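Section 3.1: Structural characterization of target chains.
Under the original work plan, the team committed to producing a structural model for every single-chain target entering the pipeline before any wet-lab resources were allocated. The record below documents one such target. The sequence was received from the expression subgroup and is listed exactly as submitted; it comprises 116 residues.
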Amino acid sequence: MKHQKKGRKFHRENGQRNALLKNMGESLILNEKIVTTESRAKDLRVFIEKKISIAKKGGIQSVRELRRYFSEDASQKLIKEIAPALKDRKGGYTRITKIGPRKNDSAEMVQIEIIK
């Protein structure tokens, strides 16, 4: 039975899955939108919205927490540009838009972007 088992595995081990989310999260922060598969975007949404909430709190502890996951450039952009723009929102910082199937394997592709 699959009780209380959240998240997707993507046929990867734990470290590889975490690295995938970190890399996609950093790309999303730096570019503000990326194109990926639907299941990856849904997992990325959960990951990135928690990090945006941490950035909105501000302070040195937030900087240290974000530096565990993202590079210096990405964490500074998240704290100095993205978090102040989203200070009045209580959640729902990202938007997922379907763009159709991928040509070679018909995987459902989506665009995930940060709402400002």
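The chain has a mean pLDDT of 96.
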